Amino acid sequence: MSTDAVTDAGADLDAIVVGAGFAGLYMLHRLRGMGLTARVYEAADGVGGTWFWNAYPGARCDIESLEYSYQFDEALQQEWIWTERYAAQPEILAYLEHVADRFDLRRDIRFGARVVSAVFDEGAALWTVALDGGERATARWCVMATGSLSSSNLPAVPGLETFEGLVCHTGRWPRSGVDFSGRRVAVIGTGSSAIQAIPEIARQAARLTVFQRTATYSVPAGNAPLDPEVQRRVKADYRAFRLRNSLMPIGADFDHRDVSALAVPPADRDAEYEARWRRGGACFAAAFNDLVISEEANRTAADFVRAKIRAIVTDPVTAEALSPGHTFGCKRLCLDTGYYETFNRPNVRLVDVNRAPIEAILPEGLKAGGEVHAVDIIVFATGFDALTGALDRIDIRGRGGLRLKDKWAEGARTYLGLQSEGFPNLFTITGPQSPSVFTNMVPSIEQHVDFIADCIAHMRERGFRSVEPHRPAEDAWVEHVGAIAAATLYPTCNSWYLGANIPGKPRVILAHLGFPTYVERCRDVVAKGYEGFTFA
Ligand code: N01
Questions:
Q1: pLDDT tens digits along 233-250
Q2: What does the pLDDT read at residue 1?
Q3: Would you say 415 and 473 are in contact if contact means Cβ atoms under 8 Å apart?
Q4: Which helix (H) or strand (E) holds 480?
Q5: Which residues of the chain are under the pLDDT cut of 50?
Q6: Beta bridge partners of 176
Q7: What is the rounded distance in angstroms from the CA atom of residue 359 to the CA atom of residue 159?
């Protein structure tokens, strides 16, 4: 705790932060720097958030390392040396541990502490946060740094509890690791986590059966050791690199071509896709400016990837099953290292669960389409209850005892993805309806943390005790976020962006498309005296 801290009379702390991933660590650093008393509660035994839990084989970021890092401290960004174009999970976790040590953050983080409720006391304008062990603490501000993809989704398959082998979820990977050698393994799911894990597991396992519900568009990641000369060049003017990055949806060094896929001859179009396929990475999706807007343009990218799958996968039936039929890019584009090639291995089999639905889990394996697949290990790569899941798991009650979960029963309602009316002094970092998952998460997190810290400073300077959005501003924001998505092809798929992967979850877009426009809007809100927020 900093010595010049001025905690409110009656409160244990100025601020409570929930979660010690990228968001919680930087939030704590900022709060401390303002002379506030703050504590982070973290359910895990260490820092890292998503990078603590997602330790499955092959886990790796799909944003380039030099971009997927903090920029708030010049010395930090100069001293840390990335070794690969895309950092693997252990390297990112080591980076976050370094950050925690470098800024001496651990002394204000309580590990193994799961927050179960947060209740607002209107009279005192304080939040009371309770842990699963019963401990409580009060604070003026409560900041949810709970992550966008942190509440893992384990489908309710009948008989799961009877399975005699090992069950694991990619998003809650066992800390001791899993040895697949000589084992019979089932992987359920073919999203980003699965496409990274499958090639690694296939190399070790005796037999791997992949249960696919929706085929995946994936492009080669093109991962490689990071050229020290490239790293030196970026670090020589990191600020300019970050600035370029901030003006893009994703990827400072992507060539975002501002031309329609339909405006170029087919041969040139395919040459462009081919060049990007060879380069590797999400720059494939930036080949043309209308891939997520025009169905016809979209089909050109989809056809290109499907042709690649047919060329890579030798068995035509498997190739056909692996070929996605939905809109290209309306589910998160995956980046892989040898994913489609893995299905040419003799020990790997694909089961299409649309033809052979998973009926039950038995003590000895899975039953799908009447066939029993005997396995030793089942890996659920079934994703997350995105953006709202981690908040829903906490009993959050605002003014008049209003439950956040009830308020959001028909879909999240926020202003700027930062606050929800009726929940004063409660902030969400990269919360629903902010750009979050449509961007490079780290700069988005920094932008939100800075906004929240500045808002708190504004309150302290003027003696305000509470801040929350007013209803018309929130209503307009909800409509605005929905309208942007409606003008794209995103609503055409059953993606987690829409909550469509979770049975019963309302189908609404969960994030704001566009980072530069969002940042501009936030600046404008502040310039107009926090327009849309009410202070008391
Ligand atoms: O989860 P997902 P994920 N029966 O939801 C299937 C980030 N991330 O963990 O598509 C059978 O994408 C489901 O099928 P369907 C990234 O933003 C980043 O892979 O719903 N199957 C799907 O195939 C990513 O988008 C990185 O029909 C079921 C899969 O499980 C996000 O996290 C790495 C099922 C889930 O895919 C989530 O990725 C990893 C059921 N009952 C993750 N329920 C990188 O940085 C679900 N599925 C590289």
A1: 999 999 999 998 888 766
A2: 34
A3: yes
A4: helix 471-486
A5: 1-5
A6: none
A7: 9
Sheet holding 371-374, edge to edge: 358-362, 365-368, 371-374
189 lines ligand 1 (CB under 6 A): yes
β-sheet bridge partners, residue 335: 219
| Nearest atom of ligand 1 to the alpha carbon of 192 | 19
Report how many helices (DSSP H) and strands (DSSP E) the chain contains, helices first. 16, 20
Q: Whole-prediction pTM value?
A: 0.97
For residue 335, give the 3-state DSSP assignment.
strand
3-class DSSP assignment, residue 352: strand
For a substitution probing ligand 1, which of 192, 250, 332 has the most ligand atoms within 8 Å of its CB? Answer: 192
> What distances in angstroms separate CA 250 from CA 162, 375, 478, one per listed residue?
44, 40, 23
213 lines ligand 1 (CB under 6 A): yes
- Evaluate whether 205 touches 344 at the Cβ level (below 8 Å): no
Residue 237's Cβ-side half-sphere holds a number of Cα atoms within 13 Å equal to 6
Cα separation of 329 and 218, whole Å? 10
Q: Count other Cβ atoms within 10 Å, centred on residue 369.
A: 14
State how far the Cα of 328 lies from the Cα of 47, in Å rounded to an integer: 35
Which one-letter DSSP state was computed for residue 244? H
Identify the pLDDT of residue 247.
Answer: 84
Tokens of 102: 């470098």
3-state secondary structure (DSSP) of residue 10? coil
3-state secondary structure of 304: helix
Q: Is 192 in the pocket of ligand 1 (CB under 6 A)?
A: yes
Q: What is the reported pLDDT for 228?
A: 96
End-to-end CA distance of the chain: 27
